[in-house]
Amino acid sequence: MQIQRDSMSSIGYLTNYAGRLLVRALERRLDGKSAGPMPVFLALNDGAALPQKELARLAAVEQPTMANTLARMERDGLVAGEPDPGDRRSTLLRLTRAGHERADAALTAAGEVNALALSALKPPERVQFIDMLRRVIATLEADG
Hints:
single chain, 3-stranded antiparallel β-sheet
């Protein structure tokens, strides 16, 4: 296997760069608000209540990172905790009304950004691109 020395041929560089550009475009549409809560919005927007550990797993981040995100969200009135009836030591987190409003705005903005990004591709290529990304992700998850 040949070592990639050109950033424009490196899947790691290109996906990371594309991800950063997607986040910037999203944050512009959110009037400068952070895109950091997006994984929480995606996990809880349907009314679910989940523990921090599960949110960290779904977002593929470490517990301290999720704890910081949730602390900011709680400070901003976007999430609230409630006792877990199945585990007295655990707290379930749920979006507040303000959290649902912010999530709706963020998910709408994300849809706009996704549509913009995919507009560079023809419709069949869009489906193929998303399928290929899912397969790459599955392969890397299996390695971890």
